[in-house]
Amino acid sequence: MVVILKNNPDEGQLQSLIHWLETKNVQVTQSLGESNHILGLIGDTSHLDMDLIGALDIVESVRRIQEPYKKANRKFHPDDTVIEVGNVTLGGDELVLIAGPGAVESEEQILQIAEVVKAAGAGILRGGAFIGRSSPYSFQGLGEEGLKALAKAGKSTGLPVISEIMQISQLDFFADIDIIQVGARNMKNFDLLKELGKSDKPVLLKRGLSATYEELLMSAEYVMSQGNEKVILCERGIRTFEDYTTNTFDISTIPVLKKLSHLPVVADPSHACGRAALVVPLAAASVAAGADGLMIEVHADPAHARSDAQQQIAPAAFAELAETVRTIRKTVKPE
Ligand code: PEP
Ligand code: MN
User: What are phi and psi of 165, to 5 degrees?
Assistant: First the structure.
């Protein structure tokens, strides 16, 4: 971090700033120019509040030269993080397909689709139980009952399960859920993130609708700062001016996050485009770009799905998708 001081800074204030920085375990170097007086801060500056320093009378501006996230940063953790869930690993050699319906609709429905996606090669079963819909009049999910049905389908097929949590008070219901999903709209629910940081369950963190890569990584940092380092990042499209698709799928996210961070990166083309016909090509592109996994909404009867019917693909399309992405993966990452 670099602190640029105003001309002729007050010596007393300067010394107290330097002293304060040193108490924060940061080494300070000074460079005195004709018109500029600059402090170079060396060490871990991730815990320093830039705005606080920038607001001081003697300070002109503050610039970070290092990313503010540390635990999620590949610079401090060069090796890929590999997260084991049941008998699959995310971030390692395998490409993991997370598949299932948008919402758990009944015990029979989730069990049936679990068997279908497993047969096609899915490694993890998804199903929303607490689902944040854009309209309060849309199906809101089966809640606790939905989670129980999902866990049961997971047990009977041997697939680990993932579902979205909306608020901290729901955490007790997730005892039998293997991965906790934080939805795009909750990416900045810092209290929720901190609480999940105290859990030992992997957390799949979706990128917010208007979040930058750094903001997504700072949200991952919130979870990791509390001790839970099992975070999976997920690109699910962002809001742009385009309205043909629900969101705009930002393919750059995948290689950028793989470069900036050691955490596994999953892509969710279903929510990114909101159109079943686009799911297979976007899934293919994600794997080509280096995604460690895909999250795909699959429904036995998409036309009658109780949530997001237009974006769920039928079992046959999922089987085609699985085959396509397996071939691409072999080219991108030969074994
Ligand atoms: C979901 O996965 O069902 C979901 C609601 O996703 P997102 O938070 O990305 O909209
Ligand atoms: Mn959904």
Answer: -100, 140
